[in-house]
């Protein structure tokens, strides 16, 4: 029985970290997409956004391509340049991948064995 719970905790922890990482990556892609969508909706070119935000056009392009990750300060500068609240870049957090949810799924899978 002890091995079962040890294994359950190890697998649970690994899956929890995986979901945490995937949530971060999904949110980052959401932010990047949202910046681009808002910019295009407002009819602002990357060059104009770079001038308004005092960031280089290549840096803006790399953010939109996912090659660079913007810092919080950069996001604020971009939001100011687009005349939006920085919160508009972020999704509401409604992840169902809580620790308890993951443990329940693992236990159900182990019961099938």
What report would you give on this structure?
The longest helix is centred in the N-terminal third of the chain and has 40 residues, at 2-41. The protein is mostly helical. The chain is 72% helix and 0% strand. The protein has a single domain, classed as lambda repressor-like DNA-binding domains (434 Repressor (Amino-terminal Domain)), CATH 1.10.260.40. 10% of the residues are buried. It is built from five helices and no strands.
What is the fold-level CATH name, i.e. the topology? 434 Repressor (Amino-terminal Domain)
Please state the structural category: mainly alpha
Question: Mean pLDDT, rounded to whole units?
Answer: 81
Distance between the termini: 15 Å
Radius of gyration: 20 Å
Shape: elongated
Q: How many structural domains in the coordinates?
A: 1
Which sheet architecture does the biggest sheet show? none
Low-confidence stretches: none
CATH architecture: Orthogonal Bundle
Total number of helical segments? 5
CATH superfamily: lambda repressor-like DNA-binding domains
CATH class, named: Mainly Alpha
The succession of helices and strands, N to C, reads: HHHHH
Portion of residues in beta strands equals under 5%
């Amino acid at each position: 029985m002890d091995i079962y719970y040890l294994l359950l905790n190890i697998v649970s922890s690994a899956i929890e970290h995986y979901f945490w990482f995937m949530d971060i990556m999904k949110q980052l892609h959401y932010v990047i997409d949202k910046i681009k969508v808002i910019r295009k909706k407002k009819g602002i070119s990357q060059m104009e956004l770079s001038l308004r935000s005092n960031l280089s056009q290549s840096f803006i392009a790399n953010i939109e391509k996912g090659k660079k990750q913007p810092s919080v300060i950069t996001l604020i500068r971009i939001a100011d340049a687009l005349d939006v609240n920085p919160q508009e870049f972020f999704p509401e957090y409604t992840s169902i991948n809580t620790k308890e949810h993951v443990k329940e799924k693992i236990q159900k899978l182990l019961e099938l064995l």
